[in-house]
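Sharing a chain and its predicted structure for anyone who wants a worked example. Both blocks are below, sequence first, C-alpha cells second.
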Amino acid sequence: MKGTYQSQLSRLSNDGGFAVVDLETTGLDAAQDRIVEIAIVRTRSTGEVVDEWWSFANPGAGRSSRSIHGIDSSDLATAPAFAELADVISDRIGCLPVVAHNADFDIAFLSREYSRAGFQPPDPVVVCTLKESHRYLPRLRRRRLVDCCRAVGVENPAPHTALGDAHATAALLAAFLSS
C-alpha cells in the first residue's frame, strides 16, 4: 500500500468521498510491529460520515502494547488475523482516497500487513490531516490529533481507539473541507 500523497486537499476532486483509516499497533515500527485494531470510517466528499467498520486484528502470540491503547492479549485471542481481514479492508477502501492523521504511519503498517499476508496492497491517493494541518492551522504549535481537533472544536470521546480516532479524523477532515 504505497499510496500517492495528495498535497492539497482543496485540489482533490472527489465525488465518492473518503475512507478515513486509523490503526492501533503493538509498537511504532511497521517492520516488526503489528496492527491490533483497525477502523475505516467512510465519508461523503464533505467529510460527513456515511458508515463505519471496525475490528480487532490478532497479531500473533505474545504481541500487544496495552500501555498505548489498553488492548491486551485477551481482547485479541479470538480476533481474526490480518490475512482474514484483508479483503474486507480492501473492499471498504475501494478506490476512495485514504485519509489518516500521520498517514505515513498507517500506510506503512497497512502495506507491511498486506505483504505479510501475501496480498497485493491497494495503492490509493492518500490525504494526511497532520500534513494538511500546516495549511489549515498554521499557528498551531503541536499537531497531534487531539491538538488539531481541539483547534477546530472537535472532541474525541474515545482517544487511542481506532474507531474513536477515525471519527475524530473524519471530523477534522470535515472542518478542513469547510474552511
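Comments welcome. Helices lie at 66-69, 73-76, 82-93, 103-117, 129-136, 145-151, 162-178.
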